[in-house]
Design brief:
Layout lengths: L5 H13 L9 H21 L22 H8 L7 H19 L9 H12 L1 H4 L16 H5 L3 H14 L4 E2 L4 E2 L15 H14 L12 H7 L5 H4 L3 H5 L4 H4 L2
Antiparallel strand pairs: 1-2
Helix pairs in contact: 5-9, 8-9, 9-10
Length: 255
């Protein structure tokens, strides 16, 4: 900035005083000449720059209220969990239930049933000579139509004859009718290979096809069913009167 000479400033003050514009002091001119120039830019800048707007406060969202679990879920959370060792036990429960139910069912008629065992033993060992229905084949005696009941009134005499056969029978005759051993009836094998149960069962079958009442409810059949079921032996049932008279012993019944 160029400095104004003092004599020019003085002349300017005098001129202003003559026109009635004020001034005249030595300190007024600089103040009056410099103040407006300095204040204009400041005022203009202040007016031009708007005050920054204060942002409105943002309200935080309220958390949703926690809803209680339904009663069945609360009960499930309170219930104790199944321990891991119980899983094999639970897996085995169906098998245990099946076995338990089967134990409640009556056993089916099978090989251990006296009548089934008798029919099976007869078909395997006797039918080739006596026929499938006991009618007899060749010179083998007939068993059906009451024939076996005529020869053996007591089933125990018949059981002894089946056990010993022609070879081991101690007398020349056998049965109630005193049939000759090894006569026209041919040779009777000694069935020492059959058990007491099988002999009792086959005798039961032969007497049944001969027409006798061999039902288990018949009290006369208690001993033969007991032997056929393995509850007694032939020795326990005892000797029949005819076989005992012919010399058969309890030791012979043991095979």
């Amino acid at each position: 900035m160029t400095e104004i000479p003092e004599h020019l400033l003085k002349r300017s003050r005098e001129r202003r005083a003559a026109l009635g514009l004020g001034g005249g002091g030595s300190d007024d001119a600089p103040a009056s000449s410099d103040a407006p120039a300095a204040s204009v830019p400041a005022t203009t800048a202040a007016a031009a720059a708007p005050a920054p707007a204060t942002p409105a406060p943002v309200e935080a969202p309220k958390p949703e209220p926690v809803r209680p679990d339904p009663p069945y879920i609360q009960a499930a959370k309170r219930r104790k969990r199944i321990p891991f060792w119980a899983l094999p036990v639970l897996a085995a429960l169906p098998l245990w239930g099946y076995v338990y139910v089967r134990t409640l069912e009556p056993p089916p008629a099978g090989a251990d049933d006296p009548q089934v065992m008798g029919a099976t033993t007869f078909a395997a060992n006797c039918a080739s000579c006596h026929g499938g229905t006991g009618g007899g084949v060749g010179n083998a005696p007939q068993l059906s139509d009451g024939k076996v009941l005529e020869t053996f009134t007591d089933w125990r005499d018949q059981a002894a004859w089946v056990r010993l056969g022609t070879k081991n029978w101690p007398s020349a005759n056998y049965g109630d009718t005193e049939k000759p051993v090894g006569g026209s009836g041919g040779t009777m094998p000694s069935w020492t290979t059959l058990t007491d149960q099988q002999i009792a069962a086959v005798v039961l079958h032969e007497r049944q096809i001969s027409g006798a009442d061999m039902s288990e409810t018949n009290p006369d059949n208690a001993d033969i069913y007991a032997v056929a079921r393995g509850e007694k032996t032939l020795v326990d049932a005892g000797l029949g009167p005819v076989s005992e008279a012919d010399g058969v012993t309890e030791a012979d019944l043991g095979g």
